[in-house]
Every structure is written in structure tokens, then in C-alpha cells.
Amino acid sequence: MHMADALISPVVGGTMWVASAGVAAYSIKKIQSDLDQKKIPLMGVMGAFIFAAQMINFTIPATGSSGHLGGGMLLSVLLGPYAGFLTMASILAIQALFFADGGLLAYGCNVFNLGFFTCFIAYPLIYKQIMRRGYTPARMFSAAMLSAVIGLQLGAFGVVLETLFSGKTELPFNTFVLLMQPIHLAIGVVEGLVTAAVIGFVWKARPEIIENASIGKALGSISIKKVMTGLVVVALFTGGILSWFASSHPDGLEWSMFKTAGVEELESSDGIHQTAGEIQEKTAFLPDYNFKAAESEAEPSDSESEEAWPAVSAGTSVSGVVGGTLTLALACLIGLGISIVKRRGKASAA
Amino acid sequence: MAGIIQSLYEIRFLDELAEKRTVIHNIHPLAKLLTTLIYIVAVVSFEKYEVSGLLPLIFYPVIIIGLAEIPLLPILKRLLLVVPFALGIGALNPVFDHRIVFTAGWFTLTGGWVSFFSIVIKSILTVLAALTVIATTGMNRISFALRLLFVPRVLVLQLLLTYRYISVLMEEVARVLRAYHMRAPLHKGVRYNAWGSLAGNLLIRTFERAQNVYQAMVLRGFTGEYKTGGAPQITITDLLYLTVWTLFFAAARLFDIPALIGSLVTGVVK
């Protein structure tokens, strides 16, 4: 469920970064207002616990396969939604940095999908509501189960929307939803079962841990309305600004048309002088571009559309392939060169 | 079990790499972090059918890996483990996008394949960028850079503590699992009747550990700030590092360098 950078666009990634940062800022404000300094090491060590516990294989009864703990729900039950969200955010940061599990640009998306939906939607709206009338094993089981399943379903839907808005995949919405939601229903059931088993055990052995967390003075009342309104405003604002920036850059189609045209001209003539002239033209490209863009705006046929495809001539493709191969070869040479020089330097030093 | 030991090993491996002293390691963490972010945005901002234009961006990880003396094999291994996840979704592009963009004799290339290759390259480049930044900087210095970027103290502290205790708790989980598997040698995973007690006991111990940690921190004068030692100053070299790379990324983004090289070469051949 961790999204990778390759499948998202800068606009979507940036917007989700801002949204997650907003939720994090709100959470920090909340936990600082009931500043219990003990909570900081608790959050840190709990984060490490979840990180390690995610690696335990739980055999799923009657199937022979095994599942894992995600931990978002368990964190909000034990630490409350604010500290739970922040802890989830740091777990995801370490996963992204050390295991490249989830991208750095996609980090905002991942924190939102795995942290926000569990801590700020499933926990207060489902878990807390069911548990309001006191602890019984049956109530706890259904609360953990329902909130884990719904939290993950929302998260999976978030992945679908963020990926589709990014426009890197050709998957139609329906197919994608049908792929994601059932898989995450199964994952959610396992998550719910493990969460319920753990909470049940801790409740029997050390009820005060669960009780303290659920009383958690400042943690009781989440103003979902406030959070949601803030989020919608922030998301619309940044999304708007970022897409405005993105669209003011040369768009892909116009750029490739221009490039193709330039190279075709080159193919028809010969000699290195033309090539040099071409490079010169390219270097003076930006001031020229405004003019070209303005010109193309007048022609509706040039507007960006999904269906349009830049004309690909054989000449361009050949030079593209040749150039691409040379680029990669050069990269390999540089890499090799550096390591040889380094090794020699070490040998001579020793 | 094996997975947990392997992950522990990988974290320590990256930690050890981060302790090296090379040209790249000596660059200010903030400069490295910003360069990495700009790089990832540059890679991802290429439109979905771009392939050749992305290739020059491989120079960045290649040069960093070379200069920072990062062994290639473990990084490539990690890459092979991670990339398939992104490719799973990208692999469906050829199924849905049949527009033919290039034909040469029997060979036809559809838009779906082009966008798939684009995703493959983007995955490789972004994963390499993330792994190289941690392998050349380390968690403490990244956290220091985050503080300079005004990330709140609580969040950075929490990140550092989680990181610090991951190895401790992973070792503990590995011990518990080893004990479980020695008593139940034929079980692949943990049976349902032990789910609650196994993970729950670990959790209770974690709570107790957190209390001890807190008391130890207070006794050593913890006031809410996590000290990471010397704070490096930003120098001209760091600024140059950031500027030169950013200019290179911008050039690679604006000009299709392989196409330029290709047209130069094919032009010369003619």
C-alpha cells in the first residue's frame, strides 16, 4: 500500500505533502497542549515496536497463508489519534529512507493514507463510538475489526484517487478500485484480528495502559469538522497553486512537437555546423518559448489532449536511441572511472 | 524471522555507510536533502511518455554512488526488491494503451509500453536517490537538516527515538520469534491462539522500556531537546553542490540531452 514516487505527479505529491504536514502540525499542537513529556519517549519506542512487529508473520486460521500488522489502529488505540498519527509518520519516514518502501515525494500520500484515515476517521468515528459504553471483549473485537477494515478501505481508496489524479497509469478507475478494495478488505480483516488480539491481551494483563490511552484528556475530543475544513481548504489551495505552476511550464506536447520539428530540420540538412546551430538555438530556447507558446495558444489543434501523440519520425527515433545508449554508456564509464580512481587513491595511500 | 534479521542488517549496513568520510559525506546534510528532493521532483515531473529525456538523470546517482564509495550490489539488491511494487501497476499500461507510436517492419511499439518504460526508469532513479541520501548522510544528520527546515522539534525527536529503538526492538522481536519457533518448529508463522500473548507481551515490555528510557533521559537532564553533537556550517562547497546539481537537473528537464547527442552523432556519421 506504500506508494512509490514513479506513479505520482509532483502536483499530487506536493498537495498531499502539504495536507499531511497540516494534520501533523495540528497533532503537534494538540499533544503539546497536554504536554506530558513521558509521551515523547513512549511514542518513539512504540514506533519502533510497530516497526518491528510488522515483521511478525501471523498465520491466518484455516488458510495456511500469513498476514502482517500495519499498526495504525493499534497506535491510535494506545497513544490516541494525535500521537498515533505522528508515530505513524515517523515509521513511514524510516521505511522510505532505509528501505525505499514508499517514495519521498509520495511520503505525504503515504502518511495520509495510512495515518490520517486510521487515526482521524476510523478511530474517532468507529472505534471510540463502539467503545463508548465501556469495555467488553465482544465490543472491543467488533470495534477493532470494523475500524481496521474501514481505515484500510479508505486508505486504499486514497491510493486509487492519488494514482489516478497523477495520470501515470492507464488503469481505468473501475478496474483499479476492483483491484485495490478487495485485497485491502482481506488485509484489513487480518489487521483487525491482530489488533483485537493484542488489545484483548493487554487489557487482561495491564488494563491501565488501554484505559489511560482512552481517557487521554486532550485526546478525547477531536474536532473532525475543523480538521476536515482546514484540510479541504489547504488541499484546494496548494493543488491550485501547484497545477498553475505545472501548466505554466512548457507542456509535454508542445515541447515534443517543437523538438521533433527541430530535429527533422537537422536530418534534412547535413554537417556538424547545422548541429552546432541547432544547439545554439536550443540554448536560446527559453526567451523564444514565450513567443511560441503564445502562438500555439491561438491554434486549438495544439492544445494538450490525452489522445494527441507527438509525430515520431524514424530519424528522431534513431537519434534518440543512439543518444540514449551513449548517455547510459557514458554514465557507466563515469561510474567505473570514479571507482577506479578511488581504488587507486586508496592503494597509493596504503 | 529471516526477514527481521535481514532488515536489521540492512539498517546497520546503511548506518555504517553513513559513517564514511568522503567528498559526498562531507557535504552539508541540508544541501544533500534539498538536492535529493529537487532531483525526485525533476524525475517525476517528466510527462508519462518520456523515456530518453530521463536517461541523463542517471548521472546523479552514478556519480554520488561512485564518489561516496557506496558498494553497488547491496543497493541494486534493494532496488530489485522495491521496484516490482511500482511496476505491478505500471505493467498494466500496455494492456490498456494500444496506440501505436512506432513501427519498424514487424516491430510495433505501443504507447502503453513507452509509458511503462518511463515508469521503470522513474522507479529506479527515485529509489536510488532515496537510498543514496541516507547512505551518505545518516539519520542524525538528516534530522539536523529537518530542524533547519523548521520541522517541529517534537516530530524530529520522535523520529530519532523511533530510529534509535528500532534495532533494540527488532532484536527483541527476533529473540521472541526464535523462542516461538524452537517450541513450535513446524509452524510457518505465529498461530492464532498466540497472536495476542506474543505481540501483547512484547507491547507491555515496550511500555515498560519506554518508562525506563524516559527516566534515564530525565536523569541525564533531558529538557525536550535531542542533542546530536556538532552542527556543521553551510559552506560555499555546499551551496555549489546544490546549485550545480539543480542546474544540471534543470538542463536535463528542459533539453532532451540524449536526442541532442544522438543527432550530433548521426549527423556526423552522415
From TrEMBL, chain A:
GO terms for cellular component: plasma membrane. Its main location: membrane. It is found in: Cell membrane. Coiled coil: none annotated. It comes from the Bacteria. This is Fused nickel transport protein NikMN. Pfam families: CbiM, PDGLE. One of its GO terms (biological process) is transition metal ion transport. It is a multi-pass membrane protein. Keywords: Cell membrane, Membrane, Transmembrane, Transmembrane helix, Transport. InterPro entries: CbiM/NikMN, PDGLE_dom. Residues 225-337 form the PDGLE domain. The keyword Aminoacyl-tRNA synthetase does not apply. The chain crosses the membrane at residues 7-28, 40-60, 72-98, 104-126, 138-161, 181-203, 224-246, 318-341.
Automatic annotation (TrEMBL), chain B:
One of its GO terms (cellular component) is ATP-binding cassette (ABC) transporter complex. GO terms for biological process: cobalt ion transport. The chain crosses the membrane at residues 30-47, 53-72, 79-96, 116-137, 144-166. It is a multi-pass membrane protein. InterPro entries: ABC/ECF_trnsptr_transmembrane, ECF_CbiQ, ECF_transporter_component. It comes from the Bacteria. The keyword Cell membrane applies. NCBIfam families: ECF_T_CbiQ. This is Energy-coupling factor transporter transmembrane protein EcfT. It comes from Pelotomaculum propionicicum. The gene is ecfT_3.
